[in-house]
């Protein structure tokens, strides 16, 4: 095996909100909680992935989710992923695969080899699961392959796969025509999950409790939406740097009262900040959108660097995994499983109708356009993480398509005859390149040089902007 | 390289010096030389803008501006009709789309991989023991360019060494190397949705083989500045002049640093 060394600790990122600052201990506690449960045998533990709309089912069955992507992100944020990545490489896996998966597989292999937590594992390490729930959904293929690979080292741990498809956007075809078919399939998948969990836990599902948790989640969805919409204020009271923290309760603690309370507190905090005219940055000069890509978890300080240049991030597409339910027109049902399936489909098809109405648009592009307008955005920043195929392919395409169909900035240009002409220009964009947790792909100097140049570009666009 | 341009009515002096780890010392040195060439005292310089990777290490600079903005400005001054700038330097390569006023509105950089920068050719020239300024012309003598498939400079170096051992003619190997670099740079530039006219700048312009290969891959003619190594520094000087003129027009004070050059101590 390669030499396994811990990397240098990063500087702590400054947060704009108290709520974001409280996330570290929260994550630490739920990782510690899973380790306690493992030790004391109080709960069954499930390795699983975010964005599967199954948290309510897990929590209703008292199964504790072990969010493996989260643990990989924690390793990255603590700059302690390299030794796990190297271990996965030593197993013959390429560094160009999803580095979350590599980190998790490297960690699992090490833990299984030792029969205990690897030395100094971040925040007490990731507990051994009782079973693994993977998902062969459109979103990301390592979400099914990862656990199959980890199962080599844990052959006694069963896997359940929930397939969660949604109809892809087609301009000339109304997705509603096939929605019922998708819905029936997803309901079947979720009922299969319940049966699997009943078998694993030896308990029967309490459907009243499930309904309560689904109702709680729905209320959280609306609350998160209302809270994040407050960021439209000028100056914006909270940025993407903080949202990379507040994604934790949204994505890892859905269907819990703690999550609801967190967003109630955050909403109140943002309202207070708005009343005081307090922004994410002291003097907000530019409003940027994080237009996609998972962040470089070890380099969240770059958000502070943007802030230092007067740039705030009122909105991001990454991890905004909820949309307002009252705008989805979901069919009414008293069956919580059916509702989960409708909500899943409602989320993924949310922008379809709007995209269809704008020539050349697509749902992801439509979301960018709408949020550029809603949040009064001056520029878009995306992160191409080399190991994340899911995001990588679409990002550049989205920016190209956006530039082609959407030119909202009126500028004065010198025409061919030397006279000033009014024309319209696309929203400036910046592509950052590195990885989610592989720090070897990152250069702080180069990244910040690009940020400096982008800020100058925004300055020049503003100077050139026609009245 | 470390460069300095002093701008008056026109270019009063320009200096291209070596580069290295001691950026502060080199900045002082080129400035001293530029002042001597222009016959000016340092106090006569109204404003100093530093650019490039070492811009924060220029102790006497009044302002730092990135090379993206400076290249755009410098190229616009030389070629007002230019809409895209491709800079191929020793450290990195970049493409910048500029508007009719010379302002950048999109850019892309390759700063991660030596195989996409001028360094690639420097290393290969060194491997083949051929002077850097001869490789471009030699590559143009090729009748059947070799294929260099490695995406890593070190592996490409080995590929070239194997090619030499196999008896592949030097011009063919060099043409392959130039095509490989041009392929990488053009793919980067095309991501910007290239707009013509396109200007090539930086050390890469000194290489006729690279220019020819780039024109082939980009499918367009490239405009080449007369002195392509100083376009960034020229842009910085122009930006400095803009700042001074704007302050004068608005009757605003200019914040500048003391015009003191640090003593230059040569190591070793």
Describe the model.
Chain A has one domain. With 467 residues, chain A is α/β, with parallel strands linked by helices. In chain A, α6 packs parallel to α7, α8 packs across α13 and α9 runs parallel beside α13 (336-348). In chain A, α3 links the parallel β1 (44-48) and β2 (63-67). In chain A, the strands form three sheets. In chain A, strands 2-1-3-4 form a four-stranded parallel β-sheet, sandwiched between helices. The model of chain A has no long low-confidence stretch (mean pLDDT 93). Chain A has helices at residues 18-21, 23-40, 55-60, 68-77, 82-90, 99-114, 142-150, 176-201, 207-229, 240-252, 257-276, 301-308, 336-348, 352-357, 363-374, 389-405, 444-464, and strands at residues 44-48, 63-67, 131-134, 159-161, 286-290, 311-316, 379-385, 409-414, 420-425, 429-434. Chain A has 17 helices and ten strands. In chain A, 49% of the residues lie in helices and 11% in strands. The radius of gyration of chain A is 23 Å and the shape is globular. Chain B has two domains: 2-69 and 230-249, Nucleotidyltransferase, domain 5 (2-Layer Sandwich), CATH 3.30.420.40; 80-224, ATPase, nucleotide binding domain (Nucleotidyltransferase, domain 5, 2-Layer Sandwich). Chain B has helices at residues 23-38, 67-78, 118-128, 132-139, 153-166, 170-190, 208-218, 231-249, and strands at residues 2-7, 11-17, 49-50, 63-64, 84-88, 93-98, 104-110, 198-201, 222-223. Helices cover 42% and strands 15% of the residues of chain B. Chain B has 268 residues and is α/β, with parallel strands linked by helices. In chain B, α4 packs across α6 (170-190) and α6 (170-190) packs across α7 (208-218). Chain A binds chain B through residues 396, 400, 403, 411, 413-415, 425, 428-429, 431, 433, 441, 443, 445-446, 449-450, 452-453, 456-457, 460-461, 463-464, and chain B through 53, 65-69, 92, 99-101, 103-109, 111-112, 191, 193.
């Amino acid at each position: 095996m390669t030499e396994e060394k811990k990397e240098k600790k990063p500087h702590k990122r400054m947060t704009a909100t108290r709520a974001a600052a409280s996330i570290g201990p929260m994550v630490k506690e739920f990782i510690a909680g899973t380790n306690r449960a493992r030790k004391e045998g109080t709960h069954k533990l499930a390795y699983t992935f975010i964005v599967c709309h199954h948290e309510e089912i897990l929590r209703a069955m008292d199964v504790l989710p072990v969010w493996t992507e989260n643990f990989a992100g924690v390793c990255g944020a603590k700059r302690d992923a390299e030794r796990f990545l190297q271990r996965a490489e030593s197993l013959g896996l390429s560094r160009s695969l999803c580095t979350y998966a590599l980190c998790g597989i490297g960690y699992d292999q090490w833990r299984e080899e030792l029969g205990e937590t690897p030395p100094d594992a971040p925040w007490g390490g990731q507990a051994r699961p009782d079973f693994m729930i993977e998902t062969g959904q459109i979103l990301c293929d390592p979400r099914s392959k990862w656990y199959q690979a980890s199962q080599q080292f844990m052959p006694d741990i069963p896997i359940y796969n929930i397939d969660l498809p949604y109809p892809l956007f087609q301009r000339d075809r109304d997705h509603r025509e096939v929605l019922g078919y998708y819905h029936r399939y997803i309901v079947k998948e979720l009922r299969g999950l319940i049966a699997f969990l009943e078998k694993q836990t030896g308990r029967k599902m309490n459907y009243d409790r499930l309904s309560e948790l689904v109702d709680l989640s729905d209320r959280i969805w609306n609350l998160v939406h209302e809270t994040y919409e407050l960021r439209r204020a000028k100056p914006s009271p909270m940025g993407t740097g903080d949202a990379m923290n507040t994604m934790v309760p949204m994505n890892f603690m859905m269907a819990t009262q703690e999550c609801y309370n967190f967003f109630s507190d955050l909403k109140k905090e943002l309202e207070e900040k708005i009343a005081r005219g307090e922004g994410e940055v002291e003097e907000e000069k530019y409003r940027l959108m994080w237009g996609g890509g998972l962040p470089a978890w070890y380099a969240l300080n770059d958000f502070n660097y943007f802030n230092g240049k007067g740039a705030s991030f009122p909105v991001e597409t990454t991890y905004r995994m909820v949309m307002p339910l009252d705008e989805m027109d979901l069919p009414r049902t008293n069956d919580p499983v059916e509702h989960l399936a409708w909500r899943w489909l409602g989320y993924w098809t949310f922008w379809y109708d709007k995209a269809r109405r704008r020539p050349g648009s697509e749902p992801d592009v439509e979301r960018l356009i709408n949020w550029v307008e809603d949040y009064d955005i001056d520029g878009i920043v995306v992160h191409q993480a080399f190991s994340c195929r899911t995001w990588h392919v679409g990002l550049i395409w989205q920016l190209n398509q956006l530039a082609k169909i959407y030119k909202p900035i009126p500028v004065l240009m010198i025409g061919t005859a030397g006279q000033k002409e009014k024309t319209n220009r696309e929203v400036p964009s910046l592509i950052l390149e590195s990885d989610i947790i592989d720090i070897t792909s990152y250069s702080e100097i180069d990244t910040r040089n690009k940020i400096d140049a982008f800020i100058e570009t925004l300055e020049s666009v503003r100077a050139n902007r026609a009245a | 390289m470390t460069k300095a341009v002093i701008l008056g009515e026109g270019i009063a002096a320009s200096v291209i010096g070596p580069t290295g780890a001691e950026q502060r010392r080199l900045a002082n040195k080129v400035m001293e030389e530029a002042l001597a060439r222009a016959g000016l005292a340092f106090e006569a310089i109204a404003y100093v803008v530093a650019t490039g990777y070492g811009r924060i290490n220029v102790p006497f600079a009044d302002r730092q501006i990135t090379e993206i903005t400076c290249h755009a400005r410098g190229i616009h001054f030389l070629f007002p009709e230019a809409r895209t700038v491709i800079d191929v330097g020793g450290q990195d390569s970049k493409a910048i789309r500029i508007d009719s006023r010379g302002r950048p509105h999109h850019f892309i950089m390759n700063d991660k991989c030596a195989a996409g920068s001028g360094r690639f050719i420097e290393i290969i020239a060194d491997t083949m023991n051929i002077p850097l300024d001869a490789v471009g012309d030699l590559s143009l003598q090729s009748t059947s360019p070799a294929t260099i498939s490695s995406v890593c400079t070190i592996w490409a170096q080995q590929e070239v060494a194997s090619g030499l051992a196999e008896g592949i003619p030097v011009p063919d190997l060099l043409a392959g190397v130039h095509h490989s670099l041009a392929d990488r740079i053009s793919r980067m530039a095309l991501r910007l949705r290239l707009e013509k006219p396109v200007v090539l700048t930086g050390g890469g312009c000194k290489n006729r083989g690279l220019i020819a290969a780039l024109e082939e891959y980009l499918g367009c003619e490239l405009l080449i500045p007369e002195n392509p190594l100083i376009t960034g520094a020229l842009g910085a000087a122009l930006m400095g002049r803009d700042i001074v003129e704007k302050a004068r027009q608005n009757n605003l004070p200019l914040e500048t640093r003391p015009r003191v050059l640090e003593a230059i101590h040569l190591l070793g």
